[in-house]
Write a structure and sequence with these properties.
Layout (H helix, E strand, L loop, with lengths): L2 H51 L14 E5 L5 E9 L2 E12 L4 E8 L5 E8 L51 H27 L2
Antiparallel strand pairs: 1-2, 2-3, 3-4, 4-5
Length: about 200
């Protein structure tokens, strides 16, 4: 066999492989860039829909996603607060808060009016037991609506607990830990808002 011809074939095959690898990598990069913006947009749309679910209709006329403030809680964790405005005036605050449930963290979205009363609560993420702990979801039961219109000023702090612990909120049969965690998240979320109320409302003007 001609040694020169053999070498040319090796170079040709290596070059073909390199070209194929390059084209595949380029296609993956382009596909990733094309889908990332769509995924980010979908996430933004989902968040915007969730924000409106915890605010009464007509309570805010601004784009809450464009009017956000990062505030540190007492533990140093950064909380993104989305501020609602009506005719330019501060009208609501919406933010995520969390507490440890039975199977992991339960993340809620909490809406609060300027006076500190709950306008709405929705559970965004959880890993609780299906058929028991998932009753915290608005689609599964009306339990989550029990927080609406309640505030720290209008109810003693000790009442912010499930009935088994001396509070006013129902627990679930066989799943007390889950509602207890949600009540804790709402209570601590209201305390966070109360501690930063001036900062949040002033920044929204």
């Amino acid at each position: 066999m001609d040694l020169a011809l053999w070498r040319e074939r090796i170079v040709y095959q290596g070059g073909l492989l390199a070209l194929s690898t390059f084209l595949t990598s380029a296609a993956l990069v382009l596909a990733n860039r094309a889908t990332v913006s769509a995924i980010e947009q979908a996430a933004q749309d989902d968040l915007k829909q969730s924000l409106t679910q915890v605010l009464p209709e007509g309570m805010a006329d601004n784009d809450l996603l464009a009017d956000a403030l990062e505030v540190a809680d007492t533990g140093g964790r950064k909380v993104n607060v989305y501020r609602g405005r009506k005719a330019g005036q501060f009208s609501a605050a919406v933010f995520e808060y969390r507490a440890r449930g039975y199977a992991g963290d339960i993340v809620i979205l909490l809406g609060v009016d300027p006076a500190g009363a709950v306008t709405g609560v929705r559970v965004l993420r959880h890993s609780e037991t299906p058929g028991l702990g998932d009753k915290i979801e608005a689609a599964k039961s009306d339990w989550i609506h029990a927080f609406e219109q309640k505030s720290l000023a209008g109810m003693p702090l000790a009442s912010w607990a499930v009935k088994k612990d001396g509070g006013v909120f129902d627990q679930f049969a066989g799943a007390t830990i889950t509602p207890r965690a949600v009540v804790k998240a709402v209570r601590e979320g209201l305390q966070f808002y109360a501690a930063h109320q001036a900062e949040i409302s002033e920044a929204a003007r």
